[in-house]
Specification:
wnt signaling pathway; 4% helix; 3-stranded antiparallel sheet; R-spondin
């Protein structure tokens, strides 16, 4: 059995999903777009549907051609948005952007800052963990938090950007009983030790 697709051109009554197309298929959506728009092919399993868009969605970049402008998928799986097939401009969560690449950790001579790696910054040593506290109390609670920090220093003499300070926090188990059976603040704890 032969199945024919319906092709619609600009002068015909257009279905809603063909409004921005120069050429459209009833089954597959846009086949050709106006000069300034990009053809984006959405794929769901075996089906595909074309749309004409002004800018390509996340995970894709625009390629201009003589006959058609297309949205092409970024090649790097860790990349959320790219400028070209292998030059990323925003990484997925958990990765840092450095010179167009998405890395799980920043290379030597750089320091992580938000989602980027900053050049010319070098990390120092981690400080000791702070005491385990819960709302300023050192005891009387089951769980608290403690933190530590790492200072990042600029290696070069010319400062183009300030280097970040890294810190991390973790959950910790606290002493359950306070001296005297009451909840005490950190100040009170130091008085009991003296």
């Amino acid at each position: 059995m032969l199945t024919l697709s319906l092709f619609v051109s600009v002068g015909s009554d257009l279905p809603d999903d063909c409004k921005s197309c120069l050429e459209c298929s009833g089954d597959n959506g846009c086949l050709k777009c106006p000069e300034k728009l990009f053809l984006f092919i959405q794929r769901e399993g075996m089906r595909q549907h074309g749309l004409c868009v002004q800018s390509c969605p996340l995970g894709h970049y625009g390629v201009r051609g003589q006959d058609i402008n297309r949205c092409t998928k970024c090649k790097t799986p860790d990349c959320e948005n790219c400028f070209s097939k292998d030059f990323c401009i925003r990484c997925k969560a958990g990765f840092h952007l450095f010179k167009g690449k998405c890395l799980s950790s920043c290379p030597d001579g750089t320091a992580p800052h938000l989602a980027d790696c900053i050049e010319g910054c070098e990390s120092g040593q981690w400080s000791e963990w702070t005491a385990c506290t819960n709302n300023g109390h050192l005891c009387g609670h089951r769980w608290g938090t403690q933190s530590r920090s790492k200072e990042i220093v600029r290696k070069e003499t010319v400062e183009t950007a300030s280097c970040p300070v890294l810190s991390e926090t973790k959950r910790c188990r606290m002493k359950k009983r306070c001296p005297g059976g009451k909840k005490c603040s950190c100040k009170d704890m130091f008085q009991y030790r003296m």
